[in-house]
Amino acid sequence: MTQLEIHREALTHNVTTLTSKLAPGVRFIAVVKANAYGHGAVACIQHLQSLGVKYFAVAYTDEGIALRQAGVQDPIMVFYPEPHRFADIVTHQLSPAIYSKQTWDNVLEHIAPQTPPFPIHLKFNTGLNRIGFSPSELEWIFSESQHKNVRVVSVYSHLGGTEEAQPDAQVAQQLTVFEPILQRFKQHPHRPWFHLLNTSGVFHYPNHQLDAVRCGIGLYGYANAPAWDAQLQPVGHLTTSIVQIHHLQPGEYVGYNKGWQATTESRIATLPLGHADGIQRGFGHAKLQVWVQGQPAAVVGNICMDMLMIDVTHVACSPGDSVVLFNASHPLSEWAAAAGTIPYEVLAGLGPRVSRVWR
Ligand SMILES: *Cc1c(COP(=O)(O)O)cnc(C)c1O
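Output (structure tokens, whole complex):
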């Protein structure tokens, strides 16, 4: 009953919009981690391939293996390969980001001398302090990476605030730190590609596209600022339908822990989605507003594990009527902001009980 409708045309529009911002020759890496930000990775990849996208990225090894098992043959970058998974990474021909001496040893341990050499990516920490080689390890990894059994496909870093107002001191500092890394690897016998930008970076730092960009959230219709969101279209539209309607007298409660109390005669509709589907506790108590018959209706009380309740006192509606949580007219970016979260968190949290239906 609860569906994430996946709009093919919107995905096409977003790829076209993002790639139209790229200088000729800049590669487009489609980030399909977390099940394509909740939209269903395999089906999204098939559509992206039909649009000419050739490079994909996931976060963890198992995500890459699942794509190989589904028949995806294009290069798949693994951003955060776990040190003990390198045997699987090599077996499935995934391209890991090498981000430490340990992961460098791990990859060497598992690759057999082979032609062509095994493709890897090198990730540098330029100030996000999340993952990556320290700039002080530059000379060491530069010389190690000329090992005949590996091919450094790309050298990259990740910027911490591409959506922040410019000039942004952190981004500026990171660009400064990356520059000598880039200059050094330009001298590598096989010049790798360089990349820094995520979705917001594509909008905000057009002069730093280098050889590739890594877009995730933008594919799905969001870019962390209203002006950029306006150029994209939400791909997933979350809808459900009313299960039951209760007529309450003043003083009656709704949900666990007396989460809400009627002050007047009220009509309360129950919807079949809750925590297990990704609707977090923070959306309770009117933080989330949904749309019934084109009218807004607020969540009352606490969200439950499998259900939530909304106030439809002012809306003419019946059980079975469809309810919009977010779509093109009611974008998730607004909805998420009201509850103090962001589209990434809501989309990635949508659970397996929500059926993904292509439109
Ligand atoms: C998730 C991720 C991206 C994609 O970021 P968006 O903001 O979703 O475009 C890019 N690079 C890395 C390293 C990531 O982990």
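The longest strand covers residues 150-156.
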